[in-house]
Every structure is written in C-alpha cells, then in structure tokens.
Write a structure and sequence with these properties.
CATH superfamily of the largest domain in chain A: Fumarylacetoacetase-like, C-terminal domain
Largest interface: A-B, 47 and 47 residues
CATH architecture of the largest domain in chain A: Alpha-Beta Complex
Strand order of the largest sheet of chain A: 6-5-18-9-10-12
Oligomer: homodimer
Number of domains of chain A: 2
Structural class of chain A: alpha+beta
CATH topology of the largest domain in chain A: Fumarylacetoacetate hydrolase, domain 2
Largest sheet of chain A: 6 strands, mixed
C-alpha cells in the first residue's frame, strides 16, 4: 500500500491512498490523517488496503491525478524522530571530515533525537540563514512504527514497522562538529528534514525489503547532475536493530520515525554519495583537501528510488535552497 | 496566571485555570487543551487571565477543589523538548563523574533534543527496566514558548516565553557516558521527563523572575529526606540565551519546551543537589569514590518550589520508581 498526505490548509493535511505507479490518488476513507491511521492501524489497515487495491484497478470513484507538488511529507509532523547512522562507510568518512579519532567497532547503533515538529514538504523551498553554515543534504531511508513497547527485542522489532519513507536530513556542516564535540548531539546543525511524498508498506518493496533493510539504490541529483546512487542494504545495523535500540528505555508512540542515516556504500568512488560531506571526505583522502563546496542559495537537490522494474517507489524529493527571509 | 491539565481520558487532558494558592481549579473556557491555548495564545490570554482573576476572587461558578493527583503534566506531550545544561557547577561535576576532560569556558549553551511524545504525570509511578542502569532524577526549571521565528536574537527571545514549568528529567547514569562519547547525545539514557502540575506565567514569580532566570530554590526530597534546595538563578546562560540558541536554524512551534538543565549552585556542599550524580561527584572529590547509590525500585522523589511568602508555585512532582512490567 502507498499513502501520501496532500495539502488542505491544515498542519496535518489530508491522507490519500496513492496508486502503485503514483499516477492517481484518492482521499482515504478509513482515516483523515496519517497520524490518525497510525494511531488506529489495526482497525483501518484492511479498509485502506481495499481502497488501495480499488485505486490500482481504476475502480476508485474519487480518484484524481496525483500531483507530487500538492504533497506534504507523508507525516507532516511527528511526535518523535530518531535518526541512526548505520552505514559504516559514511561514519568512517565523517570521522575524517570532523577530525574525530577512529572509533572502535560499534556494538550499538549510533542514534540521535531530531526535531520532529515539522518535516518540510517534498517540493517546497527550504530556508537557511547563511551558506557559511555549510548547507548539505543527506539522503536516507526511514521507517514509521506503530506503538512499540519499551524493551522490544530486535527479533520482535520488525513487526512494528508499518511504513517505509525516504528522507532528506538537512545538515549544517560547519556547526555539526562543534555540537558533536559537546557530546549533546545536534540542535543548530540539524534543522527540520524533508520526506519524499509517498510512504509505502514493506511489501511494496518485494524482495528489496530484506533483513529489515531497503535493498535499492537511492538516486541523488545535485543541480541536475547525478551525485550518487548508493544502495540502502549496507547497514551495519538493520531497522530492526534501530527500533529495538530506540525502545530500550521508552515506549515508542505510533508515528515515531526512525532513520537509517546517510545511505553510503564502501565503493563510494564508483557509486557516488548521498551527501556532500562524504564527497569532501573522499577528496580529503584522495586529494589532501576538500574541493567541493557545500550548497549555495538557488541550488537544487533531487532524490528518488525505483524498483528494478522501473516502478517509482516514494516519488521525489525535489527542493531548492533559499535564503531565510 | 496558573494553568494545569487535568485527566479526562485523552492524551492531551483538559486545560484548567488554577488559583494562585493551588486550592481551586476551573475548566478553562477559552481553550480546551494547553496546546490549543499556546497555539492561539494572543487570542485566548485575555479570557484566560480574566477567568484566573475570577477564580482567585472565589467568583468562578465552575470551581472545584484542585487535586494534584488528578493532574497530567501541564503539556502532556509536546512537539519539541530541548534541554540545556546551563548550571556550570553541575557541568563541572558531571565532567568528573563521566571522566570527561575539563572543557574550555563555554561560549554557547549546551543543549540536547529530548523525547517529547509524553511527559509523565506529576504523581504517576515511573517505570524503569533495571536499577543497573543507574536511575537518577534531575530537578530543573523550564519555559514554554509560543511561535518563535528562526533567527530570534537573545534580546528578543524573552518575549516569546509564555509559561514557566518545573521538570524532573529522568536519567539513566550508566548509559549516559556511553552515549555522550558518541557525540550523538542521549536516547537510551534519557527516558521521558515528568513535570510538576502547574505552569505559571512569568509575572507569577514577581521579582523572582529575574534576568530570564528563576531566582527561587528548588526543594528536592529523596525518600522523604531533604536532598537539596539549589537556587535556579545561577545559570551561565539565561532562558533568553537558550531560546535564541534553539531558534538559530529552526522556527520553534508553540509549545516548544526548553529546560535549564539540573539546577545546581557552587555551594553544593551546603545547599545540596538536584540529582544523585552530582552528590556522587562531590563524594568523588571529597572521599575519592562515590558512596551514594542511584535509585532503587520503590524509591520516591519529591520536588517543589515556594515563593518567599510561602505561596506554592508549581505544585509538587511526587513520584515512585517502579519496575517496568
């Protein structure tokens, strides 16, 4: 099943069922918002799925053309957003960029708590105050869980994963190492994220949902130029590990979103990267210094994902960086 | 004005106006929930204040006795919770406890993003999985802001502070240094917080609201024994600094809560502490090793604050630690 939230003038928007090929949409009958659907998932999932099947058969009377520019993030605001850093090749490069000492092999996932009171819409301009802060994108996958009890084990965790999403975790690279060195994590370096328009149930990925990981390339274009297509499978910890880690000492409410961290593969020289900081890290390794500047006002970033047969999965994040006014 | 949220079977409860002496309550007419009041503060504040004045004059027809055991946290869940660490004497001791190197004098506030999807009710039992995790309380003050734009300066920040609250920031001390060393901040070491029943507008503190700080002692009792009464004034950064720091790269939505960090004074040997970890730090300094164990199941903690004339301010956090089950 595929779901999106379309603008209706309210912060939470209006939940829609989206056809598998992302061409049509219909207002969900079983729930008016994504949060309401997640709060009552077991009650509404049968009706939502039936409506989705009907839409795919062109049998849905209320169907309209799906315009991704009318979409908010699938969950426009959430009670909790926790972001992992599960790709080791990304973490290793970040250590170089930030001048951190190489850490021992991690036995627990890395995770920080991020701002969740808004996720920018997938095609909206994103405001920043200064390019001096080092504006960067971070392409990620994420999962949205239903109610997950404190103490949930890794083995149990997957069953609470309801939806998969695609995220751009906006980052300010000049501020990040300063905050990281405090040990307190990031506030100023991590403004709100963006999400691609469509959230999908794991079955929509078919065999590409594997070991609680997304075995698909994340295509990243910066100013129209291909920047990377790293595969989401290469997580040192799967989303099951991340959910269990998050739930160690807290219940997770429905709609908690948990991110993978920047998608990265060890063959980054061939496959490219999902953030500029990683490319700069490669340049530091190969050339002795970073050559690629961070984003400028007016720059665009586009991120999308396709199944091997060409079916679009989440729609596209397609955004422009603008000066906050 | 004083406000509290009473239980009504919903997550957000029912907003009530509370008399200055905390003896009576009346359902707020201008807004049904605290979040709704904060979302429309400028529209509702006159009516709420008039109702508060009426309640204090015993002229409120719907007045009932105020039972603190019926209160949820004033904001039972929030879109954002950011916690500072603004008391230097606390930070210095924590560096000793965590084996951190002494940092240079800070030029920016320390702040982390915490879980905000629930704040435990002020008198509810608080569940933890294991005493091996090092269960500790942290007595704090906090502010709740209305809509605060990205880029708000320190000079402008105070005008967005709508309410002051009293917080217990539950912490798991065995997990905290492990997470802190990652630089990502705390997830497992910081389960949900609790709040005292009553949120107050700054004018309720009179001259004790000074330089965007709470110039009052925070009384802490552990298992009925006095543990500390540190004064809230001694912040290296005031709440105006903390709000401006938080708003550097993000708009703050109404209902964003910003905490002071553990209230601590340099004369902690005389005045006591607001968390066990600080007492253990003092013992490490004075005795060479910590002597005081962290909390056990069945332990209680009580925290309250009074004006110099004896008027209770926020009501009491009065909780018991229990095994999650």
């Amino acid at each position: 099943m595929k779901l999106a939230t379309l603008k209706n003038g309210t912060p939470d928007g209006r939940l829609h069922v989206i056809s598998r090929d992302l061409t049509t949409a219909a207002p969900a009958r079983a729930a008016t918002t994504m949060q309401a659907a997640l709060d009552a998932w077991d009650t509404v999932v049968t009706d939502l799925t039936a409506q989705y099947d009907s839409l795919n058969r062109n049998a849905e009377k209320e169907a309209i053309a799906f315009d991704q520019a009318e979409a908010l993030s699938p969950l426009p605001r959430a009670w909790q957003w926790l972001d992992g850093s599960a790709f080791e090749s990304h973490g290793d490069l970040m250590d170089i960029v930030f001048g951190m000492n190489k850490k021992e092999k991690l036995t627990k996932p890395l995770m920080y708590q991020g701002v969740s009171d808004r996720f920018y819409a997938p095609t909206q301009d994103v405001p920043f105050r200064s390019i001096e802060d080092g504006i960067d994108f971070e392409g990620e996958f994420g999962v949205i869980v239903s109610s997950t009890p404190m103490g949930t084990s890794v083995n149990e965790a997957s069953k609470f994963i309801r939806l998969i999403v695609q995220i751009n975790d906006w980052s300010l690279r000049k501020l990040a190492p300063v905050e990281m060195k405090t040990g307190f994590g990031w506030i100023q370096a991590k403004p709100p994220c963006s999400m691609a328009p469509v959230a999908v149930t794991p079955d929509e990925l078919g065999s590409a949902w594997r070991d609680a990981r997304v075995d698909l390339p994340l295509n990243v274009h910066w100013n129209g130029n291909k920047f990377g297509a790293a595969n989401g499978y290469h997580m040192a910890f799967g989303f099951d590990d991340l959910v269990a880690h998050a739930a160690y000492s807290r219940d997770l409410v429905p709609g908690t979103i948990i991110g993978s961290g920047t998608v990265s593969n060890a063959n980054y020289r061939e496959i490219g990267s999902s953030c500029i900081a990683e490319r700069r890290g490669i340049e530091m390794l190969d050339l002795g210094e970073p050559k690629t500047a961070f984003m400028a006002f007016g720059d665009t970033v586009k991120m999308d994902v396709f199944l091997p047969d060409g079916t679009p999965v989440f729609g596209a994040i397609d955004q422009k960086v603008v000066k906050a006014g």
